[in-house]
Amino acid sequence: MEVVKQQQLQSHVDSLRLQLLVSEAPVAIITSSIISVLLIIFLLGDVIDKTMLSSWVVLIVIVAILRMFLVRKIVRALTQNKLSLNQYKLKRYETVYGLGAFLNGCLLGGLGILIDANWPLGIQFIIPFVLAGLSAAAVSSNSSSLPSYYGFIFPALLPLSYGLFAIDFKFASALVLLYLILMVVTSKRFNTTLVNNIRLRFENETLIDELKTSNQTQADLIVEKQEQHKMLERMAHYDILTNLPNRVLLADRLSQAMVQCQRRRQSLAVVFLDLDSFKAVNDTYGHDVGDKMLITLSSRMKDALREGDTLSRIGGDEFVAVLTDLAKVKDCQPVLERLLKAAAIPVTVGDAVMQVSASIGVTLYPQDGVDADQLMRHADQAMYVAKQAGKNRYHLFDTAQDKAVILQRESLGNISSALERQEFELFYQPKVNMNTGDVIGVEALIRWQHPVRGLVPPLDFLPAIEGHAISLEIGEWVIKAAMTQATKWLNMGVYLPISINISAYQLQQDDFVTRLAALLAAHPKVSPRCLTLEILETSALSDIRKVSATMRACSDLGVDFALDDFGTGYSSLTYLRRLPANLIKIDQSFVRDMLIDPDDLAIVEGVIALAKSFKRDVIAEGVETIEHGTALLQLGCELAQGYGIARPMPADDIRVWMNNWKPDETWQI
Question: Of the residues 397, 429, 463, which one is the last residue of a structural domain?
């Protein structure tokens, strides 16, 4: 870097030297010519022949003119090269200029020879050479290592001194020596000042240029950073492929639109759109063609919206639109129809013609009074409903149904937590033979000991878990708890068969038999005959043949089955004929009103008759009074359970009840 600066400085100094030469040389030439002519005219008078004098003066003028032409050439060269010459041309110009000045001195010295012919000819020629050389050497030695224009000015002026020298040797010698001493001292100081000024000026100009360059660079960097910031900001808020707003910008616009809705007391619609069968397009034609199709469809769907609406691509083939300023719900329907049509128009890419459709889910705000994220989720849920309904349609989100789903989800979560916290327990309701007074067993009934609500009956939580995985966990917990309690009773010398309600969902699991066998094996003291599984007759058994095979496999383990709530469903006879159940339970709804409702009485009679015909045992639920028991005994049903016999009770109370239990005397036949 320093070498470059030195070269630049040297070039600048050379240019200034030539400028000084250009400005000073004509003055020196003209001055020397005029003084020579004046000396000739005023000092010589008529001493020299006029013809010779005229010829000599003409030679001096010719040399001066030639030097002027040289200066003009230098000026042109400086103009063309913008004040910068290479060192070869610079030295050449200096040499030619110096020779011209020296020739001027020789001519003037020769004029002195003509003036005083008494001096030796050799001295007359040597003196101008010596004086010119001394002057040039003196100036060069004091030029601070830089050539000076004085080396050219002095040889031009010294011939004038020689003219004086030729007139009066002593006077001219003293004048020449004084002149040389003065010029040497002056040139040294002047050259030092010149070099310093040139260096300072060059450094200032260099600094200014560097500052200009730096400022321009800084300005360019600022502009570049601004452009990069704009590009990054656009990438952060817009989809690169379709140039539509992305999730970030969509969330911002949706939030702003919700605020405007509240101020204007209007509605907005969040529209979730998914392209049907778009994956097939990518698989068939490739992702490049699929991307071009997305770009085309995005433009069409954007044109289908109103001014002020927003269409965003949130990923893949999924789009979300925000429709604002809706005075009524139906105001969004024309826009939705246009979106469906825009998505269904065939798209041509090259030779490929492709067509898809759209499934759209819609939710309205503030009717759906949730936050922005939930609005998008609700619209997404509605979109899946549209897909399941056949695609190429839109579906409006049902807030009431969603609330029900939320409640069910909360219920499932609470029930799962209750199972972990061991808040469930089993109550047991005795089953008896009314005729003999024997306790033939108990039915295990689950209860939820809620820390806030207290004892929660099964109908308040079991329907919520039907068909869900948590129902399987609770079903197994009931079997395990019942088997554990049976073991405790056996250890106390009490043998009580236990019946357990089991859901159709649990029974139809592929591994039900295996898991039941594992539970039985975990309680070896309890005989499988001690366990009866009750199936609701109203249960939806999708595969009777499979269920029947499962029940037979369980029977092989020693477990019995009972058909619970018999008579309440539509498949009673089918179940009775095809399912290997040993016991039929008459639903309590018939037993409860059989004393006052002839139809219920007829149903009870019919069930008892069917049980006898199919050689199945029968037990009546809902025996609440002595009269109910009496009537059932008269119809031929001896087994019963109900509040008239005993309410469900904790396991610890069963033994006490059994010790105090006595059937009514009227039941003794």
Answer: 397
